[in-house]
Design a protein that fits this description.
The complex is a heterodimer of chains A (about 200) and B (about 600).
Chain A (H helix, E strand, L loop, with lengths): L1 E9 L4 H14 L3 E7 L8 E9 L20 E4 L4 H4 L9 E5 L8 H7 L4 H8 L2 E5 L1 H9 L5 H11 L7 H11 L4 H15 L1
Parallel strand pairs in A: 1-4, 4-5, 5-6
Antiparallel strand pairs in A: 1-3, 2-3
Helix pairs in contact in A: 1-7, 6-7
Chain B lengths: L6 E5 H11 L4 E4 L8 H11 L5 E4 L3 H13 L4 E6 L2 H15 L5 E7 L13 H7 L3 E2 L4 H18 L3 E6 H4 L1 E6 L16 H4 L4 H20 L3 E5 L5 E5 L3 H11 L6 E6 L1 E3 L3 H8 L4 E5 L5 H10 L6 E3 L12 H11 L30 H8 L5 E4 L20 H12 L4 E7 H17 L4 E7 L2 E2 L5 E2 L9 H7 L4 E6 L3 H12 L4 E7 L8 H9 E5 L9 H5 L5 E3 L5 E3 L9 H5 L5 E5 L1
Parallel strand pairs in B: 2-3, 2-4, 4-5, 5-7, 6-7, 10-11, 10-13, 13-14, 15-16, 16-17, 17-21, 20-21
Antiparallel strand pairs in B: 1-8, 6-12, 9-11, 18-19, 22-25, 23-24
Helix pairs in contact in B: 1-2, 1-6, 3-4, 10-13, 14-18
Classes of the chains: A alpha/beta (about 200), B alpha/beta (about 600).
């Protein structure tokens, strides 16, 4: 089994951290995993994405496989930003599972925003792909945790909960807590969030 | 199941740091540059956690870093020097002698390469330096190999008494894999420089003799060191040759398309010198050989040069794959599918053109006002502005040129000397100033050139991860330095003194000679208790009824904390805003108010 996962967003949203959490969780579940992060040249708020390739086990064949995902070979897309979900369309196929945050992070000039307003991701994605889920996960993060900084947890957990990623909820949370320093209050909130999600 | 329990999840930078520590490195030097900028902090961390005794030398540039490592390895210490691909141009002078002189302690040179220019201003192919400098070159195909090859490179360096290069492309620098570790090697050695003038003074006949010895060493390495790996059918008439990243793409698609019987694949881990016998065995029964590699086609050209009278088959490489950009997985798949008449890359819909998210200063960066200062000062003049590498280059396309380290100050000297009709202003951070800008500035003073230079001093080499800069410490005194080299017109200002800086710039534009503005403001990403306190106690409110939409704060400053809503009204995101207040200073309508919590 191979599962190809792409996590996209902009710098500062926690793409890198989420990617490492998922990779560690996979390894703890006994799976073999490679990931690559692409940060680009922009220091802040640049496009950032990560490939995660999950294999059933480590063997002499898969260790030689590429860390890159080929065109049309993506299984799961987790986009922490709305417009960024369209940047990686070349990796999608009709059955790619798309989990998209509807919240948009602004570009840095009037001109860009004017041009971007003509693009409607919901329309494009729904017209071309079978498994599209678009929600304002930023708002969910703000509503539940009081801040948007937990967006990567909210979306990662959603992917785990709905079976898009082959890892257990407990493993994901354990790894998230190992990677991220969170307050006791946030830890309690995370437990409440998980309990609510389990209902 | 992952059976290796002794693994660590590492990226390429971390793997090399771990390997250097495990190999018993005693001396480290570098000049930071992506994609290998994290080796230094990772190695420091490992050294501290394990009570190691590595000496860290934060060099001002790659030339100094290389020379200092040569010195350590002349004295029998294992040394590691790290730089990015274009840094090799700066280190080229010492590296050109390194092969002649050789080393006693192992010396490994890590070079971050960037096919595709993901984090660089160019994608220069630096493989040619290996041949030019007579130095062996490794190129890993996984993070595990990056770890293993680094350790092996120290052994090889000591065995043949020659520094060894390892190239790490962006893809492996940031790839993360479980890496099986070998454990720390204990090396007992007395560091001592044994005099050997025939070896270390390369003049005249000695240089020629040592050049000959360097070539003999390479011949020996080519016979004795086999880092090639061959896969699939040795009897196949088609042979594919790879190095680096393309290996993984090719291997995967041969496997996926079940072409194992039809192809033999060879990958070179030791890219220079090529293992002769293994390669001759590989080409023996081939009807066609395809070289699939990034950039100029180093392997293809070297192989054609060395084995031209051994080939009895068609050879392709750069006739199929481009010499620019990184070779993608899709390019490899397209080639293989065409070659074997198989389905190619899956057709996808035409994606709408999504604009590049260009850089900007971080929220709270005190230097975000500098282009505003320069453009205000230049109003009424025909002015041109030189940019430099580093954070100061982040606002896109504001400078008129951006080439390499110190190009702002360097290029402006030529322009200012011949062109008196334009006002020439150059810019750069403290990192690039110490890298080579200080010599450039002194040269401008000595040559009586009329230019204005801005140093944006944020106390660190910030863009690559806050490595040390002389302005991080207390030893460097910019006023004393500027005076000592003969700069008489200079201003040391806090970068938030925006109006004062504009006033002084307007004044100085009318003057002659070298004029320097040394603008100080700490990097916003470093801890700042004063700002943390402000964040707790107040926030900034942009009052739309006072805003006339001049857009200085939004367009000119491009602060990530300032957003525009659907009705083109601006607002400040309090979660992102660090309360630096730069937007308040420049707002002509006083529309940004402090609100106490």
């Amino acid at each position: 089994m191979i599962k190809n996962v792409l996590i996209a967003g902009v710098g500062g949203q926690g793409v890198n951290a989420l990617s490492i959490v998922i990779q560690n969780a996979c390894l703890n579940e006994g799976l073999y995993c490679k990931s690559s992060i692409f940060k680009g040249g922009a220091q802040k708020r640049g496009a950032i994405y990560s490939f995660i390739r999950i294999f059933e086990n480590k063997n002499d064949t898969v260790i030689n496989f590429s860390g890159e995902i080929g065109g049309g070979e993506l299984d799961v897309m987790i986009s922490l930003e709305y417009i960024e979900s369209l940047r990686y369309i070349k990796y999608y196929n009709r059955n790619t599972e798309l989990l998209i945050n509807q919240n948009e992070v602004a570009f840095f000039s009037k001109r860009y925003n004017t041009e971007l307003r003509e693009i409607n991701p919901v329309e494009i994605l729904n017209a071309n792909y079978n498994n599209v889920r678009i929600e304002d996960f930023s708002m969910q993060s703000k509503d539940f945790f009081g801040k948007e900084k937990m967006l990567n947890f909210v979306m990662g957990f959603e992917a785990v909960k709905t079976g898009l990623l082959p890892i257990g909820k407990e493993t994901f949370i354990d790894e998230f807590l190992k990677k991220n320093i969170v307050t006791e209050n946030i830890k309690i909130k995370m437990k409440e969030y998980v309990d609510e999600g389990n209902k | 199941m992952l059976s290796d329990k002794n693994y660590k999840l590492l990226n390429g930078n971390q793997a090399i740091s771990q390997a250097a520590f495990d190999a018993g490195v005693s001396f480290f030097s570098h000049y930071p540059g992506s994609p290998v900028n994290n080796i230094e902090p990772e190695l420091r961390k490992i050294n501290t956690e394990n009570n190691g005794n590595i000496f860290f030398n934060d060099a001002h540039n790659e030339h100094i870093a290389t020379l200092s490592c040569l010195g350590a390895s002349f004295s029998k210490a294992r040394s590691l020097v790290v730089m990015k691909h274009v840094g090799m141009n700066i280190a080229a002078d010492p590296l050109s002698y390194a092969g002649y002189a050789g080393v006693k302690g192992g010396m490994v040179i890590i070079v971050g390469t960037d096919p595709g220019a993901n984090s660089s201003t160019g994608e220069q192919d630096v493989h040619w330096y290996a041949k030019s400098f007579n130095l062996p070159l490794f190129e890993p195909v996984s993070v595990q190999e990056a770890y293993d090859m680094t350790i092996d490179a120290f052994d090889l360096s000591e065995k043949y008494e020659v520094p060894v290069l390892i190239f790490l492309p962006v893809a492996y620098s940031y790839s993360i894999e479980p890496v099986v570790l070998r454990g720390k090697i204990d090396i007992e050695c007395t560091f001592y420089f044994e005099k050997d003038r025939n070896r270390y003074i390369n003049v005249g006949e000695r240089a020629v003799e040592n050049h000959k010895k360097a070539l003999e060493k390479l011949d020996l390495i080519a016979k004795e060191q086999n880092y090639t790996k061959t896969f699939f059918n040795p009897k196949a008439s088609l042979g594919i040759v790879t190095r680096g990243l393309t290996f993984n793409h090719v291997y995967e698609y041969i496997h996926e398309f079940k072409l194992e019987d039809k192809v033999q694949l060879i990958n070179f881990g030791l890219v220079f010198p090529i293992h002769k016998q293994v390669f001759l065995d590989f080409i023996k029964n081939k009807e066609k050989i395809i070289f699939i590699e990034d950039q100029d086609g180093f392997l293809e050209i070297i192989a054609k040069q060395e084995f031209f009278n051994h080939f009895n088959c068609k050879i392709h490489g750069k006739s199929i794959f481009p010499a620019y950009g990184a070779i993608s997985k899709d390019q490899v798949k397209s080639f293989i599918s065409k070659e074997f008449d198989l389905p190619g890359v899956i057709d996808t819909i035409n994606a709408p053109g999504i604009l590049e998210r260009l850089g900007t200063f971080c929220e709270g960066c005190p230097h975000r006002s500098f282009y505003h200062v320069i453009f205000e000062g230049l109003k009424g003049y025909d002015g041109i502005v030189g940019g430099d590498i580093g954070c100061s280059s982040l606002p896109p396309f504001k400078a008129d040129w951006l080439l390499c380290m110190n190009a702002g100050l360097g290029v402006s000297q030529g322009i200012a000397s011949v062109n008196k009709s334009q006002v020439v202003i150059s810019t750069g951070g403290d990192g690039s100033f110490f890298h080579g800008g200080m010599m450039s500035l002194q040269s401008a003073v000595e040559n009586n050139i009329d230019l204005i230079h801005f140093v944006f001093d944020n106390k660190y080499v910030a863009m690559t991860g806050h490595q040390y800069s002389p302005s991080s410490g207390t030893k460097f005194d910019e006023s004393a330095f500027l005076e000592s080299i003969g700069v008489t017109r200079y201003y040391v200002l806090d970068v938030t003194e925006i109006q004062k800086a504009i006033y002084l710039l307007k004044h100085e534009i009318k003057r002659k000679g070298v004029r320097v503005f040394w603008m100080k403001g700490d990097c916003a990403l470093m801890p700042n208790p004063e700002r943390e306190m402000k964040k707790k106690n107040m926030y900034l409110d942009l009052q739309n009824y006072l805003c006339d939409g001049c857009s200085i704060c939004y367009d000119d400053f491009a602060c990530p904390a300032i957003n525009k809503n659907e009705n083109d009204k601006l607002n400040i995101d309090s979660e992102l805003c660090v309360r630096c207040g730069a937007c308040r200073i420049v707002c002509p309508n006083d529309a940004i108010k402090i609100v106490e919590k």
